[in-house]
Write a structure and sequence with these properties.
387 residues, alpha/beta, Rossmann fold, Alpha-Beta Plaits, 3 domains, five-stranded parallel sheet, 21% strand, elongated, binds 1,4-dihydronicotinamide adenine dinucleotide, binds 2-oxo-3-(phosphonooxy)propanoic acid, ACT-like_dom_sf, NAD binding, phosphoglycerate dehydrogenase activity
Amino acid sequence: MYKYHCLNPISGVGLEQFTEDYVPVSDAKAADAVLVRSTSMHEMELGPDLKAIGRAGAGVNNIPLERCSENGVVVFNTPGANANGVKELVIAGMLLASRDIIGGINWVQENEEDGNIAKDAEKAKKAFAGCELDGKKLGVIGLGAIGVLVANAATHLGMEVYGYDPYVSVDSAWRLSRSIRHAKTVDEIYKDCDYITIHVPALDSTKGMIDADALNLMKKGIVVLNFARDVLVDEEAMIDALLSGHVKHYVTDFPTPAMAGVKGAIVIPHLGASTEESEDNCAKMAVKQIRNYLEHGNITNAVNFPDCDMGYKGDNARIVLLHHNIPNMLGQFTRVLAEENLNIADLANKSKGEFAYTMIDIDSEVPEGVTDELLKIEGVRRVRIIE
Ligand SMILES: NC(=O)C1=CN([C@@H]2O[C@H](COP(=O)(O)OP(=O)(O)OC[C@H]3O[C@@H](n4cnc5c(N)ncnc54)[C@H](O)[C@@H]3O)[C@@H](O)[C@H]2O)C=CC1
Ligand SMILES: O=C(O)C(=O)COP(=O)(O)O
């Protein structure tokens, strides 16, 4: 029996994929698996049984990844599962920044009692005129699941699209429309584009990337869209640029007290992934990955451990070990198993950065005490025996 806890509301379509072997628990500290969306887990204690965290979404900056790795907790996310939801809102954001739809709708609401509203609207509407996207230059920074969809969609709106991503994956490169132009430096995007949208993760290397220097390179009247994370943009510099009129609109999915209400800022309450389809997709993917890990030890789409898959666990017992990526680990594991006269039927070992994962199928039962012996090996963070 496995226990799971949801830190945020998770779509029922996903949760119903847990079998009767899974029970929800109200205390996260008692859970084998935690499902989360944007709740910050940085201050949370990790329970002793916690083996997996499923981020039903893309960004994992709300999860203490290093602490999870050290505790042998695998953190999964759901790459691409909410990308279409975000893409559609980015397109809406570009339209909101180009046509004064918000100003116009507000005018209608303010004049709802006006019996002459149809005629007055024809006079008032000149205050809400805008421009079209067709023919404008869009720069997309980060060509992952979301960036590729945004870039491709924008070409269908007649935009001239430039993409920048020095680490673009082969998968993304295949999905990118041939009409997207390759920007070799981010400065090209800053200097040349009319609209700039960022789709990179919040990392030490990306935090504050849109700072005063970047903004100064941009054209006067630029529209900047941020549906990635607030910390990517230096907020003070952005507010100055909005107030001076250098930035026409900053469309952001991340409200902060300082940005809410600033003239020119179009602030949305983090709705990018809040669609029925995205919520269902993310929940289904997160549950599937958690189940595959808990029941079979297979890892798919983890952010802190390598992907590793030995298929369905059959009748053999499967030992899985989460450990540091240091020399002679396999030698030490097999020595412990040999001392118990255990025969290895299959074995896989993969590494990712400082951590590694080993799966070993044994063609007999695993005697008590083996877990403790394996745990004594320096660098081993967790041992699970799946019988
Ligand atoms: N507003 C919302 O509701 C949502 C926001 N997000 C945010 O959007 C981010 C991106 O999401 P996905 O596209 O699904 O992730 P992804 O991992 O598929 O793509 C990220 C891309 O950024 C690129 N990248 C990393 N550092 C870069 C740099 N310095 N310059 C240029 N490119 C760089 C990577 O190579 C990768 O291709 C997430 O990390 C999350 O923070 C994601 C989903 C929903
Ligand atoms: O997937 C992401 O990174 C998001 O920002 C979506 O967050 P949410 O699941 O809507 O709280």
